[in-house]
Specification:
The chain has 16 helices and ten strands. The mean pLDDT is 94. The chain has a domain of 75 residues. By secondary structure, it is an alpha+beta fold. β6 and β7 form a beta hairpin. The relative contact order is 0.13.
Amino acid sequence: MSKNLRTNLVQEFVCLADSCADTCCKHWSMQVDDVTIAKYQQAAEWGNAELMSAVEMDGSGSYIMQKNPTTGCCVKFADGKCQIQSQYGEEFLGDACALYPRITRKLDGFTIVTATMSCPEIARIALYGNQPFDFVEVAAISRVPQEIKNVLPAEVSPQEALTIHADFLAATEDEKAHAEQIFARIASAARSLQFIKPSDWVNATPVYLRLADGRLPISGNNAPEKNINDPFNLLHALCGLVVASKKPAPPRLQQTISDMETALHVVLDWQNALIKTGDDSLAASNALQALWESELRETYNPPLKKWLKAQLSAAFFPFAGLGDNITERITIIGFRLAILRLAILSTYSIQKNKHGKMLPDDEFVRIAQSLSRFLDHLASPLFLLQICTETGWDKEARMRGILI
């Protein structure tokens, strides 16, 4: 049996092209697959060397689109549009360019398509669209990657995987719970799945989610473990990841990071990947936490729960996503939730006299998308996981501590 499924988010998405606030044609080294390179080489044999002249080899021996060293844009990006697509058609785009921001995976005979919030328009629909994460069955998918990873465990059927995934998505919809509590439930249930056979997941997942609160004590063993340095460590970790990427942060991410620096009264030393605190940094951090608890937790609870649902959807959690196993995947999502919350809180604290009790929707989208654009596309999650191990955030109690 085979099915083609994609989320409403993917169904609704239309590229904004020259109206996009953060085009994917800038800053990224977009890979060009072998089939597309063969087309370019054939065109060159026929006397049209234009396409081959637009690509180059990267350090690993793969082809990528060349970038304009002055603008950081693809050399075929002009007037807000891709000139290859305009002149030759989408079939001459490589998979990376043609399919972004879609993410395609296999569940044996099922093909499923989700999307990443690193695209501004996807972020907007994900956060404010109507039922964006529901799957819709379609007769065919016009284009899929040349290589698609099958993420289905051997003991699980495609329909069971969809049921398990849907259970985790449904967990985000509890109107009486805060996003942080919902994340703690999901993390507890996900970690528990690792101790049983995948064939039992379909029955165990709803049980673990339902009983999660009883497994999350507020005192004693496994109680939330806070550290006064965690807000600084979160920002320092993000700084370290940017430095390790050996690429400058795009402008939208620079603004997000700058707001966190200002709100925490710290300075980032980018050359040495250090964070410099001052005499009033701890007081500033405490003031932010008090602001969150007194004003913003309730205000930002709905969009944070939508964001969390978007993370689970994009990753087709718990079967895929950044990380090699469920614990690594949920640790990475937890870090991202913590840094997003800090970023929202920081920007709000700076702009509160300008906008009142909530940032405009486009500001929330900018913050969420700017972080996703960087964190969704790390070359490897290993350094982030190492940071989480060194800070203890890979432990359930510590992760809950940074999300209180």
